[in-house]
Amino acid sequence: MREWSDDAGALRRFGLALVRDDRFVFDDVAASALIDKLFRQASLTLVDCPGKDRRAARVRAFAQFIRLYRRHARRLAVDEDGGWIETPPSCRGGGSAAVGVRSLPLELREALLLVVLAGFTHREAAAALDLPLAIVVDRLTRARARLAAHMASAREAVAAWPQSAHLRIVK
């Protein structure tokens, strides 16, 4: 039972990080409701697979969560005319890593979160994403490069800001 709860907690944390996208989920209440819905459907894989191969069941649960979220994002991205809606840039400012991860395209964010947050190996991430290993490694490289560039630009913005502007002495 403890193994299942550990896997369920990891799946919920992964879902929270994946769903936090300003293009499709605008507030914490909507994110929470979406995560609960997707988690209930994806966690059935964990419950239905008692036995020795917990790692494979975990990979299948994460893969199911990703498929369900992709379906949800596709439904929201297509407007009534069948065309794609232009996705606005992130409306939340800042230079935190969370903002950088949220600004990544979905395919890069999925690969990065599976390896970094969920602790999957590259092969397990490739199995969960149903992609060849080389593509997953490429996506990880691009995601890390974009995240590093985001953090570097945030550091430059902080360095350019006058440090004593908020410490002005008034007599």
List keywords for this structure.
7 helices; mainly alpha; 68% helix; 171 residues; 0% strand; Butyryl-CoA Dehydrogenase, subunit A, domain 3; single chain
Q: Provide the domain count.
A: 1
Anisotropy-based shape: globular
Q: Which CATH C-level class is it?
A: Mainly Alpha
Number of strands: 0
What is the CA-atom radius of gyration, in angstroms? 19 Å
Mean pLDDT: 76
The CATH superfamily is PhyR, sigma-like (SL) domain
Helix fraction by DSSP (H/I, runs of at least 4): 55-70%
CATH fold title: Butyryl-CoA Dehydrogenase, subunit A, domain 3
The second-level CATH architecture is Up-down Bundle
Q: List unreliable stretches of 5+ residues.
A: 83-93
The biggest sheet amounts to:
none
**H and E string:** HHHHHHH
Strand content: under 5%
- What is the terminal-to-terminal distance? 65 Å
Structural class by sheet pairing and helices: mainly alpha
Q: Helical segment tally?
A: 7
Secondary-structure topology with pairs:
Elements (H helix, E strand, L loop, with lengths): L1 H18 L8 H21 L5 H24 L19 H6 L3 H11 L5 H8 L3 H28 L11
What's a concise summary of this model?
The protein is mostly helical and 171 residues long. It has 7 helices and no strands.
Q: How does this structure look, described?
A:
With 171 residues, the chain is mainly α. It has helices spanning 2-19, 28-48, 54-77, 97-102, 106-116, 122-129, 133-160. It starts with a helix and ends in an 11-residue tail after the last helix. The longest helix is centred in the C-terminal third of the chain and has 28 residues, at 133-160. It is built from seven helices and no strands. It has a single domain (2-161), classed as Up-down Bundle (Butyryl-CoA Dehydrogenase, subunit A, domain 3), CATH 1.20.140.160. The protein is globular.
